[in-house]
């Protein structure tokens, strides 16, 4: 998942409308106009080849090709490019909400973030909903070690510093002490993310709401650039566990972030692209956990490392199925793998991969795709490894809420797992 913003001036006049191109995943289109040098540099330097590529036909006309990333790209001199998921229908917001475990049940902008909304506004609305829940519960404080010169002795006297700087007849004291503060990595990361979103949203109500929360938080927290690794390193306690959902969204938004300017309105070129493969993996993991909730004797191991089917040689071969399910005796019951793609038929490479996972533990398997109107659903028999069920999750069928969508996905998987095991 990647978020990039790079502010440069467009050569077009501010009032000139910027054309928008709408594509889906794994799509391509020929641009009517030539890309400027700045546009090509932006694509080549800011976007990875896995996110979007540009090639040229025999007439040197630029061709844009998308991958499994969805979102929005605004080029410095060229069009704004929106990339929408094929298999989500109008459920993109609910899928993101379900995948990241957000518990906010009311999103004020819900009616305005359906099919016609920008991708950034969808994420901003989701982030705002979680931010409102966090503020209601209260920002968490933590103790931080401070070292200052004080008029009165406070905490521990730094004797060496005291003698070096003031001598034996000092009128002030060099002290070290623990101070309760809102200046925590979690609060700084949230403030930074709000500031990034403020520079990108187009919905006026969303922008005003984010602005209000930014102002409130900045009274207590210093704005600084926060790296995504800092978010990953945050360890929550029982008292701060209400930060879990919003920090997952914060990591999603800041992953591979590059932000030059945060002022609202400076949105001449930027991109916000999310890897739907990873989103779908999170959706499937949560849906499997929900489907197996009554099986308290089973445990789920995501991204499990498996060895043994192929040995010797260099480098060693390691396999990582998305889901590995064990019973109370640590015996593997089945494996599952999620594929966010919409092929016309089941992909042979996906089958070969699943068979390898199954043969490693001699178990049955689930190969899980998003909705394809039933065209992929089928069952295979794998010699010495039981059944391989190809399952389509109903990701496209309209759902009123993320909870309703999750219930539907979990019921679908519960039914297929019961058939399998």
Q: What would your notes on this structure say?
A:
This protein is α+β, with helices and mostly antiparallel strands and 421 residues long. Among the domains are: 17-84, no CATH class; 142-181, no CATH class; 277-420, 3-Layer(aba) Sandwich (Trna Endonuclease, Chain: A, domain 1), CATH 3.40.1350. It contains eleven helices and 18 strands. It has helices at residues 37-46, 92-99, 119-137, 159-166, 185-198, 204-218, 228-232, 244-254, 276-291, 348-361, 402-420; strands at 2-5, 20-24, 28-30, 52-56, 62-66, 69-74, 80-84, 142-150, 156-157, 173-181, 258-259, 270-275, 299-302, 323-326, 332-338, 364-369, 378-382, 386-392. The strands form four sheets. It has a six-stranded mixed beta sheet with strand order 2-7-6-12-1-11. A six-stranded mixed beta sheet has the order 13-14-15-16-18-17, with helices on both faces. It has a three-stranded antiparallel beta sheet with strand order 3-5-4, covered by helices on one side. Helix 5 crosses helix 8. The chain is globular. It starts with a strand and ends with a helix. The relative contact order is 0.13. It comes from Halocatena pleomorpha. This is Restriction endonuclease. Pfam families: McrBC.
What topology emerges from the helices and strands here?
Elements: E1 2-5, E2 20-24, E3 28-30, H1 37-46, E4 52-56, E5 62-66, E6 69-74, E7 80-84, H2 92-99, H3 119-137, E8 142-150, E9 156-157, H4 159-166, E10 173-181, H5 185-198, H6 204-218, H7 228-232, H8 244-254, E11 258-259, E12 270-275, H9 276-291, E13 299-302, E14 323-326, E15 332-338, H10 348-361, E16 364-369, E17 378-382, E18 386-392, H11 402-420
């Amino acid at each position: 998942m990647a978020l990039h913003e790079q502010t440069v001036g467009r050569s077009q006049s501010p009032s000139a409308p910027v054309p928008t191109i709408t594509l889906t995943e794994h799509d391509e289109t020929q641009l009517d106009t030539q890309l400027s040098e700045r546009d090509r540099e932006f694509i080549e330097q800011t976007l990875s080849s896995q996110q979007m590529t540009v090639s040229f036909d025999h007439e040197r006309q630029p061709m844009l090709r998308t991958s499994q990333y969805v979102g929005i790209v605004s080029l410095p001199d060229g069009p704004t490019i929106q990339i929408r998921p094929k298999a989500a229908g109008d459920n993109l917001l609910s899928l993101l909400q379900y995948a990241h475990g957000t518990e906010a049940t009311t999103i004020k902008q819900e009616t305005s973030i359906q099919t016609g909304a920008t991708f950034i506004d969808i994420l901003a609305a989701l982030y705002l909903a979680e931010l409102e829940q966090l503020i209601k519960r209260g920002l968490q404080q933590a103790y931080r070690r401070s070292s200052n010169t004080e008029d009165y002795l406070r905490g521990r006297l730094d004797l060496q510093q005291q003698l070096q700087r003031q001598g034996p007849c000092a009128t002030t004291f060099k002290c070290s002490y623990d101070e309760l503060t809102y200046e925590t990595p979690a609060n700084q990361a949230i403030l930074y993310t709000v500031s990034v979103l403020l520079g990108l949203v187009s919905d006026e109500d969303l922008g005003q709401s984010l602005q209000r929360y930014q102002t409130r938080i900045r009274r207590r927290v210093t704005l600084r650039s926060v790296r995504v690794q800092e978010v990953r390193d945050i360890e929550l306690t029982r008292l701060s566990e209400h930060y879990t959902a919003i920090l997952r969204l914060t990591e999603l938004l800041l992953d591979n972030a590059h932000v030059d300017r945060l002022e609202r309105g400076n949105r001449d070129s930027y991109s916000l692209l999310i890897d739907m493969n990873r989103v779908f993996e999170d959706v499937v993991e949560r849906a499997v956990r929900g489907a197996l909730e009554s099986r308290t004797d089973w445990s789920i191991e995501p991204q499990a490392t498996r060895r043994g089917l192929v040995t010797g040689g260099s480098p060693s071969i390691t396999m990582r199925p998305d889901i590995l399910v064990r019973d109370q005796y640590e015996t593997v019951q089945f494996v599952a793998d999620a594929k966010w793609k919409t092929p016309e038929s089941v992909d042979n490479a996906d089958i070969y991969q699943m068979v390898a996972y199954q043969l490693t533990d001699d178990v049955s398997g689930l190969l899980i795709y998003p909705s394809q109107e039933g065209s992929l659903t089928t069952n295979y028999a794998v010699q010495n490894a039981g059944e391989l069920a190809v399952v389509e999750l109903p990701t496209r069928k309209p759902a009123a809420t993320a909870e309703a969508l999750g219930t539907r996905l979990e019921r679908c998987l519960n039914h297929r797992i019961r058939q399998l095991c």
